[in-house]
Design brief:
Blueprint lengths: L1 H16 L3 H11 L5 H8 L5 H40 L18 H15 L3 E2 L5 E3 H4 L10 H5 L4 E2 L9 E3 L5 H10 L3 E10 L10 E11 L4 H16 L6 E8 L2 E14 L2 E4 L8 E12 L1 H6 L8 E8 H9 L12 H7 L18
Parallel strand pairs: 1-5
Antiparallel strand pairs: 2-4, 3-4, 5-6, 6-11, 7-8, 8-9, 8-10, 10-11
The structure holds phenylalanine.
The site of phenylalanine has 11 residues, from strand 10 and strand 11.
Amino acid sequence: MTDITSQTEAALAAIAAADSLDALETQRLDTLGKKGWVSLALKTLGGMSPEERTAAAPAIQSARASIAEALETKKAALEAAALEQQLARERIDLTLPAQVAPKGSVHPVSQVMDELAEIFADLGFAVATGPEIEDDWHNFTALNMDETHPARAMHDTFYFPDKTGECREILLRTHTSPVQIRAMLDQGAPIRIIAPGRVYRSDSDATHTPMFHQVEGLVIDRDIHLGHLKWTLETFFKAFFEREDITLRLRPSYFPFTEPSVEVDVGYSTEGGRRVVGGRGDAPGHAWMELGGSGMVNARVLEFAGLDPAEWQGFAFGLGIDRIAMLKYGMNDLRAFFDGDPRWLAHYGFSPFDQPTLSAGVGARA
Ligand code: PHE
């Protein structure tokens, strides 16, 4: 018995002295391992008479228990020490500037959407969203385009077939205007929102892609008139293009969901083959360019969206984001926007650190 006691003491001392996980493992193998002396001693119990076993077992069992516990405690201590060391070694100061330039860049469309949100937030507009997979009611009917309305044909809609193979109900939204309906139904009045996002039309050439981006604007309140619309767009474009000489022309037009409807043109000139916004479109060397549609929200649309036209009115506009991005940052081919060519992105993209803010400037490229 004294044999086991002294062997145990020696083992416990060796375990306490182990200075690495490897050294500790050696101790475990020597004692509790398959060929360790504790395991071998336990095996001898099988060959003993019951009396001998009753006499011998407790000492061996307790040796095994104390050694197992010592091994476990020591292992935890060594692991904790190793972790401490690793943490000390791998310490990094997150407040230091990054040593490598970030890979990738922010697409001009994303950048312009951030700029839009920033400018309109300053005018009290919230950003609203709606689904790109829309239903016919939100995209057309509630916008005063019933099934037979000729304007529907002009939208070159992508429809999803239903169970019967008919393609009527579910579609890819053809404009951001359905977000008007959703915002009115969700929030009631008054409202001041913009809704930037993707829209889809079955159309493709140098200036049209099947997917493109629009930003919708909607203001609903009491006593809103066309003057508010013109001021809002002018104020936006001055901030966006960072110049005071922005001149807008509102041209009478027709949209089923606005009455009256106006198309918004901006004056520009061409310098060195590049279009530069500013000045009147009818001044020498200048022309007008269409940026989008707008108008006073049609009373029928207010009714569809659950608002009383006797109490509420408002204006709405829809602008092509890709087009104003091209104008501002000097790109000339819309299709390159969606090619995903890393060279194009490296040239026209923005640093993720280049967040547009009104104070730092949303106009100029950093
Ligand atoms: N939804 C129209 C389009 O896609 C633009 C528009 C929006 C016109 C809001 C008027 C008011 O052409």
